[in-house]
Amino acid sequence: MKALVLSDTHGTTEEVAEVCARHREEVDAIFHCGDSELPSSSPVLEEMYVVLGNCDLKNAFPEEIVEEVEGVRIYMTHGHNYNVKMSYVPITYRGEEKGVHLVFFGHSHVPVAFQQNGIVYVNPGSLLIPRSRSERSYALVHATGEEVTVQFFERDSGRELTDMRESFSL
Known about the structure:
Its cofactor is a divalent metal cation. Residues 1-144 form the Calcineurin-like phosphoesterase domain. This is Phosphoesterase. It is an enzyme of class 3 (hydrolase). Its EC number is 3.1.4.-. The structure is a single chain. The strands form two sheets. Strands 3-2-1-9-10-11 form a six-stranded mixed β-sheet, with helices on one face. It has a five-stranded mixed β-sheet with strand order 4-5-6-8-7, with helices on one face. The two termini are 14 Å apart. It has a single domain, classed as Metallo-dependent phosphatases (Purple Acid Phosphatase, chain A, domain 2, 4-Layer Sandwich), CATH 3.60.21. By secondary structure, the chain is mainly β. It is 12% helix and 33% strand.
């Protein structure tokens, strides 16, 4: 299973469409972790799983989803309800409650990948307003039955941020 993961795009459509077009043929699914600030009817979001962020219109999207793609169970939420800017503990508890392999979240605009209790957590950063790094980023997540590889990319050039690549055993 290979997924494109975006978050915190805050009203941008051209940039989202460009990143999706860049990777559409190589991924099984596209996930948007919230704060798209677009209506649910926006054509750029048509082929994506999307959750509600704190800047989105209320009830535009679900607050959380669990999806299975190619045998990999994925939980996605924006992260604001789990205080991800303060600690990852609440979201790790939620991931365990959901019984998933992967958790995708956003909100902090900080790209990160880590593993806790056998679950891999990924925040792709922001396509618009980066924090902690200068690059506007997104992620590609490749999960096999035994391993997860997370790659982060810079939005404009599509260049991999190789110092951020992470691999985890499941």
